From TrEMBL:
PANTHER family listed in its UniProt record: INOSITOL MONOPHOSPHATASE, INOSITOL-1-MONOPHOSPHATASE-RELATED
Entry keyword annotation includes Nucleotidyltransferase: no
The EC number(s) this enzyme carries: 3.1.3.15
Name under which the protein is recorded: Histidinol-phosphatase
NCBIfam families (alphabetical): his_9_HisN (TIGR02067)
Single biological process term from Gene Ontology: inositol metabolic process
Listed GO MF terms: histidinol-phosphatase activity; inositol monophosphate 1-phosphatase activity; metal ion binding
Reactions catalysed according to its record: L-histidinol phosphate + H2O = L-histidinol + phosphate
């Protein structure tokens, strides 16, 4: 099935109506994880609520998996996966690198998705027509860079601290092989792979709602997204995205050590 861009725009606009008024507003922040810090805000909860309402009205037989409000009807062939604010830490810090992620899986495969960054006025999306961008500079088709060598690549990860034990040692050696390494930006870094500005993102410990929406955007732009071991990324885990198959293979080998 195909998902119209009009529907994705409706989702983006509805979510933005909940997130933007609360961005940089110094609102209350709750912690979802005892012994650590996993923040959630009213913007997260309300944005997911309106997204779920739109999906349920348009596709009542489809399932939904959301970070804040759980799952419903996920035995359906069609399941929408929602992260209302991917990058809540950036959101509460006033940094405009968070985004609203909404993706659709059919029989477990990610087939359509969108990442909306309403503060910058950007929408990255993929459907049957390919991967596209709308925002400053005008609409365009998304295409990854043709980088094949680690020595010429730009790498992003949320933070090397997420790599534990031997994995951290392998990551440090991997980072030494690339041209430029930067940290943070959550879903925005993955979107930049599709946009041709970043070559690799390596992020361990992602949940399905962190990555499902981004898979078709990157893949339809020419990139590759898998786990570090080369498996499907739809269920989350340690996720590697790269601009080309050749670069993905080189990065996967480096991360394996």
């Amino acid at each position: 099935m195909d998902i119209s861009i009009d529907f994705m725009r409706r989702i983006a606009h509805a979510a933005a109506a909940e997130t933007l008024p609360r961005f940089r507003s110094q609102g209350a922040v709750a912690n979802k994880e005892q012994g650590s810090f996993d923040p959630v805000t009213e913007a997260d909860r309300e944005a997911e609520r309106v997204i779920r309402a739109l999906i349920s009205a348009e596709y009542p037989d489809h399932g939904i998996l959301g970070e804040e409000h759980g799952s419903e009807n996920i035995s359906s062939r069609h399941v929408w996966v929602i992260d209302p604010i991917d990058g809540t830490r950036a959101f509460i810090s006033g940094l405009p690198v968070w985004g609203t992620l909404v993706g659709l899986t059919v029989d477990g495969d990610a087939v359509a998705g969108m990442m909306s960054q309403p503060f910058t006025g950007e929408l990255f999306y993929a459907n049957a027509s390919g991967a596209h961008y709308e925002g400053p500079g005008g609409p365009r088709r998304l295409t990854t860079r043709k980088t094949t060598s680690l020595a010429e690549a730009t790498l992003f990860t949320t933070t090397p601290a997420l790599f534990k034990g031997d994995a951290r040692l392998r990551y440090d050696l991997f980072e030494q092989q690339v041209q430029l390494a930067r940290y943070g930006t959550d879903c925005y870094a993955f979107a930049m792979v599709a946009a041709g500005s970043v070559d690799i993102v390596a992020d361990p410990g992602l949940k399905p709602y962190d990555i499902v929406a981004l898979i078709p955007i990157i893949e339809k732009a020419g990139g590759v997204v898998t786990t570090f071991e080369g498996g499907p990324a739809e269920r989350g885990g340690d996720i590697l995205a790269a601009a080309t198959p050749e670069l993905h293979a080189a990065a996967m080998a480096a991360l394996r050590g």
